[in-house]
# Entry
Amino acid sequence: MKFFVDTADIDAIRELNDLGMVDGVTTNPSIIAKSGRNILEVTKEICDMVDGPVSAEVVSLKADDMIAEGRKLAKIAPNIAVKVPLTWDGLKACKVLSDEGNMVNVTLCFSANQALLAAKAGATFISPFIGRMDDINLDGLDLIEDIRTIYDNYGFDTQILAASIRSANHMSECAKIGADVATAPPSVIKAMANHVLTDKGLAGFMADIEKAGIKIL
Ligand code: E4P
# Structure
């Protein structure tokens, strides 16, 4: 499973990228607003740092406007994936932009039917939002599983990009189901390294190291 990092925080992306943990980056208007940066400038900086796809989202609602914005975003760098919302206009924009050879990430997906339409419209990525479904007592992981089944039934190339990930547990569950990509905030990716038994075991080893005076250097 590829790891995308869901942030526009340059230092956080660099730290994970240097460790080989970043296969791509996702942003959205809220993430850009939080960065306080100009969307074109910060997106360019991310694209220069990361080899994989960098999702940059359109900010209009009408298909023609999304297409114009998508074309401008795509000029930032060859690794831009234009992100469009899963509306009828967004699907129209997806079809045009993907036919023109751009990567397109269709976002705000909350149903298997929406994912089916995005695949038909030529999406490179479909982004089902797990956490936001869990927030309203729906099962986001079930949705990932349903989309996996449907895409495999018909051989769709669209990659399942599990999004709105809130916990390290979501990451391993998505990997078990077979999501192609999971995008998560840096804190969640780092939390994957944590285990209470690792901490406990290490504390025991450190106590014995101290008691026995074990040294290597
Ligand atoms: C993904 O592309 C989205 O930017 C993101 O995962 C949304 O996550 P949130 O629901 O935590 O805002």
